[in-house]
Structures are given as structure tokens and as C-alpha cells.
Amino acid sequence: MLGALIPGGIARPYDDTVARDLAIDLGTANTRVVTKGHGLVLDQPTVIALNTRTHEVLAVGDDVLAMIGRTPGYLVAVRPLREGAITDFDITERTIRLLLRMAGTSKMQRPRVLLTVPAAVTSVERRAVREAARRAGASAAHLIEQPMAAAMGAGLAIHEPVGNMVVDVGGGTTETAVISLGGVVAYRASRCGGLDMDAAIQEHVRQRYGVTISQSTGEEVKLAIGSAVPFAEQLRVEVRGRDIGTGDPARVVLTSDEISDALAEQVDLVIDTVIGCLADAPPELAQDIIYEGIHLLGGGALLHGLAERLADATEVPVHLVEDPMGCVARGAGLCLESFDTLRPIFAAADV
Ligand SMILES: Nc1ncnc2c1ncn2[C@@H]1O[C@H](COP(=O)(O)OP(=O)(O)OP(=O)(O)O)[C@@H](O)[C@H]1O
Ligand SMILES: [Mg+2]
Which of 38, 119, 143, 192 has its CA 20 to 30 A from that of 209? Predict the structure, then answer.
């Protein structure tokens, strides 16, 4: 039986059947919730339906996508996170409240919640996120830095005096970290993620063909023919958009070569961020990484050829982790199993 912390730090018996511990990875592109004993219980796009009159959050995830175009004007679909950071705490609280309900907890249960945060968020933001989770119904809210959760999700021995490197190419950010002895030793993040890659494709089509396409079309193109190294043979896809001049529907055929050119800037940014982080690591730990390799995760890690480009540029072996998109949530979920013994790790993020 776990002990729940009450004010003053005294443990009291904690009834697992009443309150379920939850880990929430609120990502720029996707939100994942893991509960103790049940694993992944929610995996949805981070999109909310917001009532702009009342500030109410009416739905999260796929339900919102189904509502687009079918709602009155004051209901809008919003991606509430930018670059992985929480920007509006009122909306965050309402979103978390809804997520808790969607994950099957009732108002009475008041679960303990572990939230993942980018390692770069300020202490003011950290306090605000914890407060938002408490107001949303959590009995206690702790934070874990995403690179730490990623390392745990990847099964790395984070408590050993050995350098490990994780590279998370998410929707809004690329976070890179060297971890040793249970702490982040070197860290670099930059604004280049899957959503920026989609935007680069949208911009390319607009500039070259004078056609606007949606973010989701840009993403489809990326998934179909996007790459960090050219494909052996040229691939093509046809997309639909709107002519900028006339507003008429338009079709464009795109090739894999032009899309890899359009993505080059984002791919270079990912590589530069990793090289910068490696350079920041103490030499002994950098040596470990040359031997152990880089652990690559996040949805962007699945971009065709990215692991190969990264290995070439850094001359370090690159391992794509199992289920790269679920890695951070999985790691946070592992923490739930030993909520109390891992408190020092949370404390580092909780300040
Ligand atoms: N096969 C693929 N090739 C390229 N990109 C992909 C692929 N599969 C998923 N992605 C991209 O991965 C991104 C989502 O990744 P992920 O779920 O790790 O982001 P996130 O955790 O929400 O974001 P962040 O950590 O930056 O806040 C999306 O932009 C998606 O298009
Ligand atoms: Mg993420």
C-alpha cells in the first residue's frame, strides 16, 4: 500500500481502489494519459473545443476534430500548447479536468497526478501547472521533466553514473538531454517539431505553386513522402488546396525531392540542437554517449531517414526507441509504480 502525502509530509494510508494515480503527457501535438495498473488509457490529439464567450473547454481530442465546421462561430478548435509549453493556465485547468474525466476518474476520487513538462519551463510556470492540476481535481500534482520520463520510458539506467542521451523530436519542440545519476546534466531545446515540418510544407506549396493547403494536408504529405535523406526513387503525391489568387480549388503533384528540400531547415535544426547538447556535456559523459549511442524518440523521430542523418552528422550510433511517440508517457507511467521512492526526481522538477 502506498502512502499519500498530506500537508506536513506525513504519510497516511492510500486507498488505491478509490483514487487512481495518473500520469499525463500533455504534448503540443498529442496528449497521453497512463493510469497505474491500466497503462495507456487515453491517446488523443491535443486539440480542444473552446467556447470563446465563456472560456469553457467542451471537448478534447478526436471529438473536437469531428466538430470542426459543424459548430456555431463562438466554438473554436484550438491547439492550447505552443512549443510544448502551457500558455493559458485557466484553459489548462479546464483541459486537465476534462482529461481526468475522460480517463475515468470521478470528482470524488481526487487522484494524484504526475505531469510531464519540458525541462526548460520556468519555476513560475511549474508552480502554475501544478496549481492548474490541483484546481482541476488532483489531490496532489507532481512534475517530471520530459527528458527524464523519456529516459525511463526507453529503459535506460538513469541512476547509474553513466551518460545517456535522449532526443525527443515532438510536435512543437526538439528536446535533447544528457542524463546521469538521475539528473539532467546537459540540455538543449529548439523550436523544431512535427508541426513546424507541416508548416514548412504548407509554405513550400504556397510559394512554389500559389496554393494554400491545410496543416493536416501538410502532415499527410510529410507522412507519405517526407524524408531527411532522399528516397532511392522519386515518390509523388497529389494534394488539394486553394489557389491563392482566385480562391478556386486546386490540385498539385508534389515530389519527395522537393519535400525533403522543404524539410531541410527543420532537419538541420534538429541536428544542430543535438550537436550543441553533446558539446555541452562533460567529456566523460560525452565518451559514454559515443559508446552507448543516442536514444531517439517522439513522433518526429519517425521521419524517414532522420535517425540515419543524425548518426552521420554526430558519428554516434542512434537507436530509435520502441514506440517513440508513447515513450514519455510510458516513462511517466513507470514512475507511478514507485510514486514515493521516486520523489527526489519529481522534486527536481517540482521547484
Ligand atoms: N512517420 C512519421 N514521420 C514524420 N513525422 C511523424 C510520423 N509519425 C508522427 N509524426 C509526427 O510526430 C508529431 C507528434 O509527435 P509527439 O506525439 O511525440 O509530439 P508531442 O509530444 O505532442 O509534442 P511535444 O513533445 O513537442 O510537446 C506530429 O507532428 C506528427 O506529424
Ligand atoms: Mg512530447
Answer: 192
Mean pLDDT of all residues in 171-186: 96
- Residue 350: the pLDDT is 66
Residue 234 has phi, psi (to 5 degrees) of -65, 130
The predicted pLDDT at position 184 comes to: 95
Pocket around ligand 1: residues whose beta carbon is below 6 Å from it? 27-30, 46, 84, 170-173, 193-195, 219, 222-223, 226, 298-300, 302-303, 325
Looking at the CA of 300, name the nearest ligand.
Answer: 1
Single pTM value for the model: 0.91
Q: Cα dihedral sign for 261, 82, 123, 326?
A: negative
Whether pLDDT at 205 is above 60? yes
Supply angle C-alpha 20, 184, 30, rounded to 5.
Answer: 50
The DSSP-derived string for 182-213 is TEEEEEEEES--HHHHHHHHHHHHHHHHSEE-
Alpha carbons 28 and 86: distance in angstroms, whole number: 9
Report residue 14's pLDDT band, with 50, 70 and 90 as the boundaries. very low
Side-chain half-sphere exposure of 324, counting CA atoms within 13 A: 20
Give me the domains of the chain, ranges plus CATH numbers.
3-45+83-149+327-350 (3.30.420.40), 156-320 (3.30.420.40)
